[in-house]
Structure formats: structure tokens, C-alpha cells
């Protein structure tokens, strides 16, 4: 096989859009692939061709890392999956990784410290260095000094500091974000002690994920946050006793990984 055909095959493999197959399409694809099929006998690729193959392999390996991270975090509260997208430029194959902020499934836990947002807004939290960050992880914890923090230990903005003798069972978070605290006596009426405001972004995909945490920082691409009260726009209600699951589809990620692995195998066979 000539170097022209080798280069042509590389371009076809590298530039084909990364698609998700339905179950029927996946079975049809498998049926069309004979067991033990070889790509044929190749001429030895040139150094330029090997460089191109090596770079393409590196990009596909990076895409597989993204898929693996999605699968690892499939059970992480509020996790947002990333999607590897390939395109072709004048300089070769380009990999772009985008994060999907589609809402995950809302699960009822009955824990008064668990909060979920029924909409596309974010909880606001404050980092140790004073920055305001944003999260969908509503698994709140009560510290020994009465403050409410996320699973990353970041202070939930708008949440009050509870009296040391108070327990989480005395906390009421209404759908509009109003935070109430029950009195110590049954006849005492709950009193308002705080209000949780949410943040919305014009382009949430432009948010920057903080390394090792389930929080995001605003960027130029995301735009400035718009502060809203939960429910003021007819959605984005705050749900106490609920958590948002990740938006990872295990089946889709499995198919995506299989698709990437097939292309990697084809490229490596060419290089060999």
C-alpha cells in the first residue's frame, strides 16, 4: 500500500466526527467487522506520517481520559460530564473538551442538609481565599462551629451560622431560598435566619472547573453571574432533602470509550 493511501486512511480516521451509536447501530457496526480482520500490509510510514499518527494517538488517549473521568464520577453528586469533540483544521486534528451542564436526576434523600436546584442555576460558595465560586453539589455539612459548608469545605453563601446547640433537624430551607430555624420549644414558630440566592450564567459551559473540587469559577466566556432568588423566574426552586445526581450516562460513556479504542487500535496498527 502506498504512502498516499496511508496518509488518506489517517485523515479519514482522524477527521471523522466522534459519534455516539444507538444500540442497533453499535450491533450493526460490530456485525460488519469480521473477527481477526487486519488492516493489511503497509509500507513503512515516513517520519512525517509517524509524527501525525503519534499526535493523533495522543489526542485520542486524552479523549479516553476524559471519558474515564466521567465514568469515575458517575456517582458524584452534581458532577457535570465533559464531552470530547474532534474537528479538523489546516494544521490537523483538534480536540476540544466541553462540559455539559444538563441537569442530572433529582433524588430524594430526606436529609435536611441536602439541597438540589431544579433548574440551571448554581449555589454560591466562598473559598478559603475569599473568592466566590459556584457549584451544583448541594451535599451540605454542618460544622462544629455551626456553619454550613459544601463537601469541599466551602462556606455556603446566604446560609446562617447556627447556634451551637442547634441541630440540622431544626433547619428549614424553603423553595424560595428562605432559611428558617425551628425554636427549641414545640410551640415556637420558625424564624427566618438567612436567604440563599442563586447564580445563573449566560454561557455556563464557559465556567472554569477548579482542580480537585466540584466548583467552578466565572470567566470572560461565561459572563458575569446573574443573582436570582430561587423560583423567581418560575424555575430554579431550591429543594431541601434532595440531591442532584451526575448527568453522566454510563451506557453512552461506555459506547464512546469503545468507539475511541477502535480508532486508537486502527492508528496503532498503521504505525506498526
Q: What does it look like?
A:
The protein has 272 residues and is α+β, with helices and mostly antiparallel strands. The protein has two domains: 3-101 and 250-271, no CATH class; 106-244, no CATH class. Helices cover 26% and strands 25% of the residues. The protein is built from four helices and 18 strands. It has helices at 3-15, 23-31, 47-72, 250-271; strands at 82-89, 92-99, 106-108, 115-118, 122-126, 132-135, 141-142, 148-149, 155-156, 171-173, 178-181, 191-195, 198-200, 208-209, 216-217, 226-228, 237-240, 242-244. The strands form seven sheets. Strands 5, 6, 9, 13 and 16 form a five-stranded antiparallel β-sheet that branches. The radius of gyration is 25 Å and the shape is elongated. Residues 1-42 have low confidence and may be disordered.
In short:
With 272 residues, this protein is an alpha+beta fold. It has four helices and 18 strands. The protein has helices at residues 3-15, 23-31, 47-72, 250-271; strands spanning 82-89, 92-99, 106-108, 115-118, 122-126, 132-135, 141-142, 148-149, 155-156, 171-173, 178-181, 191-195, 198-200, 208-209, 216-217, 226-228, 237-240, 242-244.
Give the total of domains: 2
Cα-to-Cα separation, first versus last residue: 14 Å
Summarize the main sheet. 5 strands, antiparallel
Q: Please report the total strand number as a whole number.
A: 18
Compute the gyration radius: what is it? 25 Å
Compute the number of helices.
4
Quick check: average pLDDT? 82
State the helicity in percent bands.
25-40%
Oligomer kind: single chain
What is the N-to-C succession of helices and strands?
A: HHHEEEEEEEEEEEEEEEEEEH
Give the DSSP E fraction (strand runs of 2 or more residues).
15-25%
The helix/strand class is alpha+beta
Runs in which pLDDT lies below 50 for 5 or more consecutive residues are 1-42
Amino acid at each position: 500500500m502506498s504512502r498516499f493511501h496511508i496518509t488518506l486512511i489517517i485523515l479519514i480516521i482522524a477527521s471523522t466526527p466522534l459519534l455516539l451509536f444507538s444500540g442497533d447501530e453499535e450491533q450493526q457496526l460490530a456485525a460488519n467487522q469480521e473477527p481477526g480482520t487486519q488492516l493489511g500490509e503497509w509500507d513503512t510510514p515516513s517520519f512525517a506520517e509517524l509524527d501525525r499518527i503519534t499526535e493523533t494517538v495522543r489526542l485520542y488517549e486524552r479523549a479516553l481520559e476524559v471519558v474515564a473521568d466521567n465514568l469515575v464520577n458517575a456517582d458524584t453528586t452534581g458532577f457535570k460530564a465533559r464531552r470530547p469533540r474532534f474537528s479538523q483544521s489546516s494544521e490537523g486534528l483538534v480536540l476540544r473538551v466541553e462540559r455539559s451542564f444538563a441537569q442530572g436526576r433529582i433524588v430524594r434523600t430526606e436529609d435536611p442538609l441536602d439541597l438540589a436546584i431544579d433548574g440551571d442555576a448554581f449555589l454560591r460558595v466562598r473559598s478559603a481565599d475569599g473568592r466566590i465560586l459556584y457549584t451544583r453539589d448541594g451535599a451540605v455539612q454542618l460544622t462544629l462551629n455551626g456553619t454550613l459548608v459544601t463537601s469541599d469545605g466551602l462556606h455556603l453563601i446566604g446560609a446562617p451560622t447556627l447556634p451551637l446547640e442547634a441541630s440540622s433537624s431544626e433547619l428549614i430551607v424553603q423553595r424560595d431560598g428562605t432559611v428558617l430555624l425551628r425554636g427549641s420549644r414545640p410551640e415556637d414558630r420558625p424564624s427566618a435566619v438567612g436567604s440563599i440566592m442563586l447564580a445563573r450564567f449566560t454561557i455556563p459551559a464557559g465556567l472554569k472547573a477548579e482542580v480537585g473540587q466540584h466548583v467552578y469559577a466565572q470567566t470572560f466566556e461565561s459572563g458575569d453571574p446573574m443573582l436570582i432568588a430561587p423560583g423567581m423566574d418560575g424555575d430554579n426552586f431550591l429543594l431541601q432533602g434532595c440531591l442532584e445526581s451526575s448527568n453522566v450516562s454510563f451506557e453512552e460513556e461506555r459506547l464512546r470509550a469503545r468507539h475511541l479504542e477502535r480508532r486508537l487500535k486502527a492508528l496503532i496498527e498503521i504505525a506498526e
